Amino acid sequence: MKNRIMLQPSEWVIMEKLWEDSPKTIMQLYHELKEEPGWSKSTVNTLLRRMVEKEIIFYEEGAKAKQYYPKVKRDDAATAETESLLARVYKGSVGMMLNTLIRNNNLSNEDINELYRILGEAVEKH
After folding, report:
1. pTM exceeds 0.70 for this model
2. Is residue 112 part of a domain?
3. 76 vs 55: CA distance, rounded Å
4. Most CB atoms closer than 10 Å: which of 16, 24, 39, 75?
5. Which H or E run includes 104?
6. How far is CA 50 from the centre of its chain?
7. Which three-class secondary structure state does DSSP give residue 8?
8. pLDDT tens-digit profile of 20-45?
9. For the chain, what is the mean pLDDT?
10. What is the DSSP string of 53-92?
11. Which domain holds residue 20?
């Protein structure tokens, strides 16, 4: 399932809420999402139903309402999204992606130091 996880932007919004704190009911999600991004209760309900069908989330029957939980781990969704971006935009090349970020001055010193740390850990594993 790990490589098949492709979340739509609206699904990311709901997943972030569920990853942050779950379970949540439709009303809890609605109250959190009615201002930003401005969704109606029916929109939240429709998204939840579709996400259950896609097996991204699941629910358990609560005393008064369904309790929604994430079925997908955040790291798995982020990995799949990253792999998709690399394949679509950079032809699978991490180097090409980093080169683009560096050329456009989008990396802070903190980002560069973090990359050094990550690469150091990768070298140790190999």
Report:
1. yes
2. yes
3. 14
4. 24
5. none
6. 16
7. coil
8. 999 999 999 999 999 999 999 999 99
9. 92
10. HTTSEEEEE-SSSEEEEESS-HHHHHHHHHHHHHHHHHTT
11. 2-70
